[in-house]
Amino acid sequence: MTDPWVALEPGADPAEHARMLRRAHETFTAAGTVPKPVRAVVADSWRRSARAGVGPDGTASVELADGDLGAYRAEHPLARVMPLFRELLGSFAADGEHLLAVCDEHGRLLWVEGHATTRRQAMQMNFVPGARWSETAVGTNAPGTAVAVDRPVQVFAAEHFIRRVQPWTCAAAPVHDPRTGRVLGAVDITGGDGLAHPHSLGFVQAVARAAESHLALIAPVSPAADTHQLSALGRDEAQLVTGGRRIRLSRRHSEILVLLARHPEGLSGDELLCALYEDESVTPVTLRAELARLRRILGPGLLASRPYRLTAPVESDVAVVERRLAAGAVSAAATAYSGPLLPGSQAPAVARVRRRLADGLRTALIARRDPDLLADWAHAPWGEDDLDVWRALAAVRPTASVRSRLTALESELAAPPGRGAR
């Protein structure tokens, strides 16, 4: 094979190769061994699929529908390049009786468009918007595998792990954020055996590169000079970007800015005092001194008094997560959540916001039942002891390591207080 990511050698008989793959697939599902003619990329994907608990007779599940799907798609970065995808691939899909599909970074399908008859056929295997086609959900398939290995890949016939998908052939390529290199999702072309050609893989890869170039052109180069951006998640000392400057704030100044950013109408001295200090003996003089120091750090004009308020909007990462959650864009909210709000803060109002934000996000993750999102939370420092999330993860991804961790957590919870202390 000259290109391991292409499904068929030049001149190969598609029908004979499909028969060989079906025999190899049956051998793997029965004995767990992969015959040598199967491509390495497919063999590795079959093994990952089996480890994830995917069965060959399974099917994709639809996780987003109607308003939830619309809100999530509207927030997703790939929405900005859908016109480009349609222009480059739309007529090719319609004329060739294929489908154009776009998935997010978790293998969840966002758009499926193309030939009407082919779309109806694809609906029978839940190849529809809102369905999750990651490897961990439905095994080997082009969009899910492209995201998993971060490479353009073609999947032909019985290379698909799930049997009901084996009549299909697909080619997909990942699309990256041009600024960070992060995988945003994948663009896919799905149809019949005619797609098992090197040109289809090269075509979809070129479309993905065109999308990345377009994203680079429309992305803002840098924040405008009059914007103010506050980052306070996952850090004890917030960072404010303002007027081209990056300011690292003390913990107390971080707390003040977080609260004032949430209250553009302003807070009185008494309100701010109660929000910041548990100790009722702290005097207004102490607060005024902190505010005077903060005003000098920020420069003239941004912090006003009577009431204390910010004179220009400050966009915070907290507000971004809250907006995405309110819109039902759970995956986008989880991506923006880089950790608890000012985790070391004891300020009463900050602690309330921290709990409310974390509880709202984890509740949404548990309800969404996306194993990738649940795993990201469970393996983060703030989620490693989160019993409810581990239980939800075990329900949708019952691997040995997940079950082991859940058992350990449940044992710790059941242990009498003080046991183990010496």
From TrEMBL:
Matches recorded under Gene3D superfamilies: 3.30.450.40, Winged helix-like DNA-binding domain superfamily/Winged helix DNA-binding domain (1.10.10.10)
Domain of life from the UniProt record: Bacteria
Recorded coiled-coil stretches: none
Keyword Transport recorded: no
Keywords, ordered alphabetically: DNA-binding, Transcription, Transcription regulation
Ranges of residues in domain OmpR/PhoB-type: 244-310
Alphabetized InterPro entries for the sequence: GAF, GAF-like_dom_sf, OmpR/PhoB-type_DNA-bd, Sig_transdc_resp-reg_C-effctor, WH-like_DNA-bd_sf
Pfam entry (one): GAF
Protein name: GAF domain-containing protein
The species this protein was found in: Streptomyces cinnabarinus
